[in-house]
């Protein structure tokens, strides 16, 4: 940030009087331009025993496999965002279920949310940000080519919970939380 | 947003070619200035049977009672942010526990997170954003003067879970999720 988005004059980096952190401050009009982490929202689309993954058509991690996910938009809830991203990237109108994982990626200034989601038909189509989309049985998951650690953790939790019967109790499954340290980032 | 923070020229509001939503776009330097919801992170500080609340010294809802909470900062995890806000607003170094509630407030462009938190001593002090801080038994909670619906829901869930024994199972309690509709906002 170089210029004030309100008055176009140059921005200073300083700690405001009532603050303890450096901020982008406009000394001309007085506005503090706060910056905050962003939310990435996605789903775990399930059809029978299979999980839907998308192969990324964009950077970062072009060519690697991911759960459908993207940035939460203004005016949108996290579950609505997860459904929208699933439709945009995989061409699937899922039935969104419970919040399943919340992962902090502070070095990327992001928080990732994944929701359980049910596909009512095995139909899908690659959106503009996907090279291809496919359903995978657990033993077919391309573990060596998963785009992001948050997706890998979420898939690992999902298959472990399914194996332990956690989804068959009639209750919500545990919401899995994890903070990712920089060394775990690809 | 009126001017580009990168080049200081006037901003346009338009739908970029590869997008479906209106964005702030600089047609001079080509940058799209995305805007995204922000995360508010807080805690439910518990000392014995009592819960700590802060009376707000700032708008919005000046004079009303809240759980300690504030905006997540860059480079920070949601749990670390909840601990920081509790220290800043209530002068308490809590032991942060499990994620307890996630509430979407899309009309305010916010997602709220509250963590269970344990106070090891009954010591606290009002920070700059608090008029006063106090410990409350359940029958003393100022329900008519709670600052935000997300705080009210979280407190209601907490006391209901405590009454039902949900915290005595040795397992994590359910993470409570809710989307707040505009009419529920104060």
Automatic annotation (TrEMBL), chains A, B:
Transmembrane segments: none
Residue ranges constituting the Nudix hydrolase domain according to the UniProt record: 36-159
Cofactor (UniProt): Mg(2+)
Pfam families with a match to the protein in the record: NUDIX, Zn_ribbon_Nudix
Keywords: Hydrolase, Magnesium
Alphabetical list of Gene3D superfamilies matching this protein: 2.20.70.10, Nucleoside Triphosphate Pyrophosphohydrolase (3.90.79.10)
Molecular function GO terms recorded: hydrolase activity
Record bears the keyword Magnesium: yes
Highest taxon of source: Bacteria
Family named by the database record: Belongs to the Nudix hydrolase family.
Protein name in UniProt: ADP-ribose pyrophosphatase YjhB, NUDIX family
Organism encoding this protein: Polynucleobacter meluiroseus
């Amino acid at each position: 940030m170089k210029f004030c988005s309100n008055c176009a004059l140059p921005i200073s980096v300083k700690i405001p009087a009532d603050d303890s952190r450096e901020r982008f401050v406009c000394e001309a009009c007085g506005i503090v331009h706060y910056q905050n982490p962003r939310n990435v929202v996605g789903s775990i689309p399930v059809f029978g025993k299979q999980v839907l993954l998308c192969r990324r058509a964009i950077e970062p991690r072009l060519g690697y496999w991911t759960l459908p996910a993207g940035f939460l938009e203004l005016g949108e809830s996290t579950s609505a965002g997860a459904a929208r991203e699933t439709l945009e990237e995989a061409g699937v109108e899922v039935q969104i279920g419970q919040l399943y994982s919340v992962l902090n990626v502070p070095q990327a200034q992001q928080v990732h949310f994944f929701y359980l989601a049910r596909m009512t038909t095995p139909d899908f189509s690659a959106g503009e940000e996907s090279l291809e989309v496919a359903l995978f049985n657990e033993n077919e998951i391309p573990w060596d080519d998963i785009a992001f650690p948050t997706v890998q953790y979420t898939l690992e939790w999902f298959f472990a919970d399914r194996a332990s019967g956690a989804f068959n109790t009639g209750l919500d499954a545990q919401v899995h939380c994890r903070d990712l340290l920089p060394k775990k980032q690809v």
